[in-house]
UniProtKB/TrEMBL annotation:
Pfam families registered for this protein in UniProt: Thioredoxin_4
Membrane-spanning residues: 14-36
Keywords associated with the record: Disulfide bond, Membrane, Oxidoreductase, Redox-active center, Signal, Transmembrane, Transmembrane helix
Source organism per UniProt: Amycolatopsis melonis
UniProt name for this protein: Thioredoxin domain-containing protein
Domain Thioredoxin-like fold: 69-241
Protein family per UniProt: Belongs to the thioredoxin family. DsbA subfamily.
Lineage, uppermost ranks: Bacteria, Bacillati, Actinomycetota, Actinomycetes, Pseudonocardiales
Length: 247
């Protein structure tokens, strides 16, 4: 009898161990599925411009020159250069903090902004390539006269670094949603027309001594966002930086 009870006890231990293993495996599988779902949450999403569409005053010009887009009224007394990556989370914070002030200064004719789309984090999306694809699409939007609403929508709906960005079809759909009707826009996005120019400009920018910053511990380098005025980097963490530039 003792031997039988021992055998029965051993069987119960095996059953409990198997059940525990199944529960753990299910939990791990559930975690993997959730992680993949979270990582790919931008898949199939429509990038909505909605309230992010900016209201530019009459006389404000959006003009592409190479891989730089200038927005402002001709004759504005102040000009800033903004270097940003559409995947960069700090760039997203910069946009949220200063978008309204910058737009007001532009509409008032006090400021021109030269936007530089920098594919600094091109390998930090999954799959890689979103920084470059979005930069190229933004230049194509500038060709269609819709740079600002396209730019603002990408930051308002910014994907997370390390996760899936938006694919070219989604970027093309955003173009339609901000009013781009020229079929050349989609062709430019799909072909990566400005990719080589953007990469070449990035190499020059990242090695420009005027754009180097101290990231602590004596480590100098280029990062996004970077704001420059009159040939020098501006400390945009200062809440009054824009007022000091525009007077």
């Amino acid at each position: 009898m003792a031997q039988a009870r021992g055998a029965s006890s051993d069987r119960r231990k095996i059953v409990v161990a198997v059940v525990a293993t199944v529960v753990v495996a299910a939990a791990v599988l559930g975690g993997v599925i959730w992680t993949i779902s979270d990582k790919n949450k931008t898949e199939g999403q429509v990038i909505q411009p909605g309230t992010t569409t900016s209201s530019l005053a009459s006389g404000v010009v959006q003009k592409r020159d190479g891989v730089v887009v200038t927005v402002g009224k001709p004759g504005a007394k102040a000009t800033i250069d903004v270097y940003a990556d559409f995947l960069c989370p700090i760039c997203g914070q910069f946009e949220k903090a200063y978008k309204t002030q910058i737009e007001q200064a532009v509409n008032d004719g006090k400021l021109q902004v030269r936007y530089h789309m920098v594919p600094l984090l091109n390998d930090r999306s999954s799959p890689p390539g979103y920084s470059l694809d979005s930069a190229n699409a933004a230049l194509a939007a500038a060709d269609a006269g819709k740079f600002v609403p396209f730019h603002d929508a990408l930051f308002a709906n910014q994907p997370e670094e390390g996760k899936r960005g938006y694919d070219k079809a989604q970027l093309i759909e955003l173009g339609k949603n901000v009013g781009i009707t020229d079929p050349e826009f989609a062709q430019t996005v799909n072909a990566g027309t400005y990719d080589q120019q953007l990469n070449s400009a990035f190499q020059q920018i990242s090695n420009d001594p005027k754009l180097q910053q101290d990231f602590g511990g004596g480590q100098m380098g280029f990062g996004t966002p970077t704001v420059a005025a009159n040939g020098s980097v501006v400390s945009w963490q200062d809440p009054d930086w824009l007022k000091k530039i525009t007077g």
